[in-house]
Every structure is written in C-alpha cells, then in structure tokens.
Write a structure and sequence with these properties.
The complex is a heterodimer of chains A (about 290) and B (about 425).
Chain A: E1 2-3, E2 10-11, H1 55-81, H2 88-102, H3 112-135, H4 139-164, H5 167-188, H6 193-219, H7 223-251, H8 258-277, H9 281-289
Antiparallel strand pairs in A: 1-2
Helix pairs in contact in A: 1-2, 2-3, 3-4, 4-5, 5-6, 6-7, 7-8
Chain B: E1 8-10, H1 18-21, E2 29-36, H2 42-52, E3 61-65, E4 70-74, E5 81-83, E6 102-107, E7 110-116, H3 122-139, H4 165-172, E8 205-212, H5 213-222, H6 227-246, E9 256-263, E10 277-280, E11 283-284, H7 292-306, H8 309-324, H9 326-329, H10 333-348, E12 354-361, H11 366-371, E13 372-379, E14 387-394, E15 397-404, H12 410-421, E16 427-430
Parallel strand pairs in B: 5-6, 9-12, 12-14
Antiparallel strand pairs in B: 1-4, 2-7, 2-13, 3-4, 6-7, 8-15, 8-16, 9-10, 9-11, 14-15
Helix pairs in contact in B: 2-3, 4-8, 6-7, 6-12
The chains are: A mainly alpha (about 290), B alpha+beta (about 425).
Chain lengths: ~290, ~425
C-alpha cells in the first residue's frame, strides 16, 4: 500500500498521484499501477498537436491585400479624373469583401449564424452606401434593406428554434420582429401610418392566440385531436381579425366578408372533433394536468 | 383509444422545486452505491431490476408537466441499466432513459443508483438499492432468499409509502399553536462562498475517504459530539481557513454556513419513501471562534437548537407554505419555475460553503452482508454548491464521499489531513 507523504492518507493501488495534493506516488514495491476498480477512466484521447492556424496573420494578409487594391483603385481614379468619382464603388465592394472574407479571421469563434448576421449587416450597409454613391438618395436600397431584414428574421427564427426548442420564446421573437419590420416598412418604404394600424392588430392577434393556445395545449393532454381543434379555432379567429383589419385599411370601415366562409367551414370541423374527443377519460387527463 | 388508467402521483412538497432547478450543471440527483465481492453480471442485474419494479411504483414514473405543477405518471416502458460513467451523477436525459428518472449503473463489482431528487431522498434511495442488490444476489445464487430488513419485491407497497409526509405532519400538528421559532429559508445574511474555477460540465471529481467507525467514535467522544458534528465542524473549519487564505482583512470575513440535511423520519414515524428531509444550517462567524473545539461546540449547539421540535415544525410549515399558498398554487408553472430559479440563484442556495449529508449506518442481513463489500453515498453536482459530502457507515467503516465541480480539493484536503493529524487512518479512493 502507498501513502501520500504530504497528506498522510493511504492511497489506492490505482492512484499514481495523491488526489488531494497531486504529489506523485513513489513506491518501489509497486511495479505496475492497476486500473481504477471503482470508476471507469475517461477514454485516452491522443492529444493531437493542434496545428496553430495563424488566423490572425491570415487576416492581416487578406486585409493588406484589400487595402492595397483599394489604394490602387483610388490612385487610378485620381490620376485619370483628378477627383474621387467611380472608385467609390469598387472600394465599397472591396470593403464588403474584406468584411465577408478577412474579418472572420480576427474572431476566435465563428458560428454560421454569427457570420450570417454580420454579412447581412454588411450587405445592408453596402447597398445603402452604393445607392447613395450612385444616385445621392436612398430610393431602391430601402427595399433591399427591408428584404434582407426579413430574410434575417426567418433564418434567425430557425436558429433560435433549433437552439431553444421552446414555443414561447420563438413566438415572442417573431412577434417582436414583425412589429419592428412593420415599423421599418412604414418608415423606409413611406407607407402611411394606416398600414401600421392594419398590421398591428393582426400581429397582436397572432401573439395573443399563440399564447392562449400554448397554455391550453400544455395544460390539456388532448393529443393530436385537441391540437387540430385549437388550430382550427385559432385560424377562424385570425381570419376574422385579418378581414376586419384589411377592410378598415382599404375601405375605412369595419366589416367582414370572406372570413364568414372560413368560419363556416372551420368551426363545424372543430366542433366535430370536439364531439369525437369528448369522453369520460378526459376527466382523468384534465385532473392530472390541472391539479394544484 | 388510449386507456387513461395509468396511475399518477403529485410531487411531494420538497420535490416541487427540483424540475425547475434541473440543468446540466445542477442535475439535482444523488448516488447510492454498493460494491460487491464479485463482478456484476449485467443480465442478472437487469432481471433483478425488472423483478422489483412493481414494489416501487412511485419510482418507476415519467415526469409530466401540468398547468400549475409537474406530476409523476406511471411508466410502463422498458427498463435499462447502464455502464458507469467516469464522472458520476451526470444529468439524466429521460429521452435516452425511456422516461425513467433514475439510472442503475454498474462497473466491475459496483452497482450504483443515480436518482433524481424529485423521486425521493437518501433514505428512500438506499431502501431501493438494498432491495435491488438483494434481488440481484438472490437471482445470481449468492443468497438463498431475500431476508428481513429488506423490502420484499413481491409485496404490495403500502399507501403510506407514496404519500407526502410533510402534509401529514401539517395535518397532525395543525392544532399546535404557532409559537414556533422564526426561521427563514431565505437567509438574508451574506455567508462565505468558495470561489474557484469550475470544472467542465461533464467532469465531477470524487474522492472517497474510508475510515474506521471506532476511531471516529472515540474522536467524537473526545469532543462530546457526534460524528456528524465533527465532520460538519471540519467542513466549516475548512471554509474558515480557505476564507482566511483568500481574504487577508479579518474584518471582511463572512460567516461560514453549511447545509446539513436531516431525516425527518427520526422525528415523525412515517414510513414515507418520498422526500422527507429538511435542512439545518449551522453558521459560524470566524471572528468568534479560536480553535476547532469552539467550532464543534457551536455546531453542536446550533444543530441541537434547530432540531428542536418547535423549530422543526416551523421548518415544515415554511416548507409547505409556498406549495399551499392560495395565490402561488394558481400561478402557471412556467412563471413559478422562473421565480424558483431566480430565488435559488440569488437568495437560498448560494449561501453555503457546502452540504454534508449523513445517511447513517446501513445495516444489511447477514447473508447479504457477506456478499457486499462497501456502501457509499454521493451527492450530485450543484451549480451553487461547488463541493458536497455524503457519509455512510457500513461494516464498521465510514465512507465519506466528496464530490466537487470546482478545480481544487480545498475542503477534502483540509478534512482528511485534519483527520490524519487527529490520529484517524484514512484511505482514499477517487475517480481521477
């Protein structure tokens, strides 16, 4: 048996170091250290010598290249025209290129989503700057900017759903983004404020219905039938709100038209499902789920 | 159509918070183990587990979510056993475990039970393990029959075992005047907390010290205390020394508090197999003690005071107050979980230097004892409590198992080296 000379404790046969003070065990009577008989060992993974990719140096080299090309373009512009004119466009392009290719080398951790977000921001700025450089206004770049924002929201939602895997945060994310995009469309695309008054009730209804449906679904294990029932009822309510909002936006008065047809189909379908589902077993399920 | 005749159970009062707190760094589980004298045969172990399933229906459950609280529902899926992991007490992913909230693991001669705290406490887990090992030994022919002192696999579990004992105590003591001592779960005073680097989430370092019961008893007698008092005092002393080494200005030294779970079955004779433990929290101000003896005296005094019946009753009432509060009962569970996590991370659990839980002496029938070499108890990792200690006694030995999720073994080193200096022989086992 071995003892730690520092701590005075007896050590097990499989210990080559004292677990308290990490003093090496030196016992000439023990030739071979046994395998741990109490806990399995971590698999010995041969530590590969990580090839230190000199990311920072690669980033510097690429940055220098972009800088040199920009300078060349600028010099040619100055030599030919005497002023800075057409060179702005290639310089902007080279800046975008730098952001997309060289900048990631300066960051230690790059995930796809992070790179995607940076690239979206870079492209938006590039298009706005390009619009201004060419036309001295922001006419067409507003549309491209809002389009890129919509694209980002959709992709971000996919990533968030994959990460969080919970309905509520994802719903809140989409609702907030919808509100922001609606405001952005009013501001950038010069739509009237009435657009906002049409969009916000629809967004609000989606949010409230999502919350209510989420809690109802989680609180009752009605299974697939219950879920379908809820979707049908939600769709009916949403159609009514959309119909009302659009009617008000277009005709400046409240009224329903096509949504009556939708309700006429969906509500009877939901009722049918309800009748099928209704049984005494539901009482047991509800008592489990709603117990306090 | 699905038959909804599956049995279901409400979570007991203590268990209600664990689903909210569970995470990879805080899996809210613990381990009880037995080392046999022969290598474990996995097929026989699985057969043994299947044969005792009916005896413990309240452990063979899924965890389901309700609108206001979680609940447990009978689980009829296939049982599994697992090879042990280098870092015990890893989080149980129920998706991979067929919905079960415990794992039976084996490695060479050791059978371990990692169990989620939602199901039970150390006492219940040990009874389950005893039955499992007894059945395993019976099926492998090492014992002739499952003997007295072990729950029989064939018997029908009494209703008492699945009930919430806290509510029964409340019912029993409802006529008692409420002149209980004031105690709050949410300690307002700021106590010392160990600051050290965390290990990666997949690592959990275990050191088990094996000591002689007789030597410990004589040491405890010298200080006129119990073994639990001595170990708790050593733990607190380790915290005091650690604080002194990190914080040079004595005026800035904070009190050192320790969480000590207490088995309420000693005070209320309910044969409950769910959670039925409460915590006492001895707290020592380092400026008011000069030597180890002072710490032992203070720990003993505080633990005796807190284990007084009126204080225990106050703890039970407080424990149940949140779960029986009319407003809290009707708050949706997601909102409740948010606040439970918030309170746990800010006020309650972050005020201890550690936890020490003594399961006491584990006694086995003679035939079984001949086949079982060691019994140990390990508390799982916790994000707030970086080092915890589980203690059991078996076959005239004490097994003190430390589990830590921080880099350095400050507490273990102090405790074991102090015991060696006091003349106690200590043998160590570890997973690294």
């Amino acid at each position: 048996m071995s003892y730690c000379v520092q701590c005075g404790v007896e050590l097990s046969k499989y210990q080559s170091k004292c677990p308290l003070c990490e003093t090496d065990v030196v016992n000439p009577n023990i030739k071979v250290i046994e395998a741990n008989s109490d806990y399995p060992d971590y698999k010995v993974v041969a530590e590969e010598e990580k090839k230190k990719v000199k990311r920072y140096v690669t980033g510097i080299i690429l940055s220098i290249q972009v800088f040199v090309y920009s300078v060349i373009v600028l010099i040619i512009d100055l030599l030919v025209d005497g002023t800075i004119s057409w060179s702005i466009i290639p310089i902007l392009s080279l800046t975008l290129l730098w952001f997309g290719v060289a900048y990631p080398f300066f960051r230690a951790k790059n995930t796809f989503f992070r790179l995607f977000t940076y690239d979206c921001i870079a492209v938006m700025i590039f298009l706005v700057a390009l619009n201004y450089a060419i036309s001295s206004n922001f006419i067409w770049s507003r549309f491209t900017t809002v389009s890129i924002m919509i694209l980002w929201v959709i992709i971000a939602g996919i990533f968030i759903t994959d990460r969080i895997r919970k309905v509520l945060p994802v719903t809140i994310f989409y609702i907030v983004c919808s509100v922001i995009l609606s405001i952005a469309m009013v501001l950038f695309i010069n739509t009237t404020m009435s657009f906002l008054f049409a969009a916000l009730p629809i967004i609000g209804t989606v949010f409230i219905l999502s919350l209510i449906s989420y809690f109802i679904y989680k609180s009752s294990s009605s299974g697939v039938l219950g879920l379908i029932m809820m979707v049908l009822v939600d769709a009916s309510l949403l159609c009514v709100i959309i119909d009302l909002s659009l009617h008000y936006y277009l005709v400046a008065s409240l009224g329903v038209s096509w949504s009556i047809l939708v309700i006429g189909v969906l509500i009877p379908a939901a009722s049918t499902l309800f009748a099928i589902k209704k049984s005494s077993e539901l009482n047991t399920i509800i008592s489990k789920k709603l117990h306090r | 159509m699905k038959q909804h005749k599956t049995k279901w159970y409400k979570l007991d009062t203590s268990a209600k918070i664990y689903p909210a707190l569970e995470s990879e760094r805080n899996p809210a589980l613990f381990r009880v183990s037995m080392s046999l004298k022969k290598d474990v045969v996995p097929q026989v172990l699985l057969e043994a587990l299947k044969s005792i399933k009916g005896r413990f229906p309240y452990y063979n459950v899924h965890l389901k979510k309700g609108l206001f609280w979680n609940y447990l529902e009978q689980n009829d899926n296939e049982l599994k056993i697992w090879q042990d992991h280098p870092a015990p007490c890893e989080k149980i992913y129920t998706v991979l475990n067929n919905g079960y909230l415990y794992k039976v693991k084996y490695y060479k001669k050791k059978i371990s039970l990692d169990i989620f705290h939602v199901l039970t406490d150390g006492y219940g887990a040990m009874e389950f393990l005893k039955t499992l090992v007894a059945q395993y030994l019976f099926l492998s022919g090492e014992i002739s029959k499952v003997q007295n002192g072990i729950l029989l696999p064939d018997e029908v579990p009494p209703k008492e075992e699945e009930e919430d004992a806290f509510l029964k105590v409340l019912e029993l003591e409802k006529d008692n005047k409420k002149n209980d001592q004031e105690r709050t779960l949410f300690n307002e005073s700021k106590n010392y907390q160990i600051k050290d680097r965390y290990l990666p989430a997949y690592k959990y370092k275990i050191i088990t010290g094996i000591l002689s019961v007789d030597e410990m008893k004589s040491l405890a007698k010298k200080y006129n205390a119990t073994i639990t008092h001595i170990l708790a005092a050593l733990y607190i002393e380790a915290g005091i020394y650690l604080q002194a080494s990190k914080v040079k200005d004595k005026k800035k030294h904070k009190s050192v508090a320790l969480q000590v779970p207490v088995n309420m079955r000693k005070y209320y004779a309910y044969n409950c197999m769910r959670n039925f433990t409460l915590f006492v929290i001895p707290t020592i101000d380092p400026r008011k003690v000069t030597c180890f003896k002072d710490i032992v005296c203070q720990v003993k005094k505080q633990m005796d005071e807190q284990l007084d019946k009126s204080c225990l009753l106050a703890m039970v009432r407080e424990n149940c107050a949140l779960a029986t509060n009319l407003i809290i009962k009707h708050v949706p569970i997601d909102i409740k979980n948010f606040f439970i996590r918030l309170i746990n991370n800010t006020k309650s659990a972050s005020r201890f230097v550690g936890t020490i839980s003594n399961l006491g002496v584990v006694s086995l029938p003679e035939q079984m004892a001949a086949a079982v070499d060691e019994v140990s108890f390990l508390i799982g990792k916790s994000h707030n409590v970086k080092c915890s200690c589980g203690v059991t006694g078996y076959n005239n030995k004490i097994y003190i198992s430390f589990g830590r999720s921080m880099k350095n073994p400050h507490i273990e080193r102090h405790i074991f080296t102090s015991l060696v200096k006091m003349g106690i022989k200590v043998k160590l086992k570890s997973n690294y």
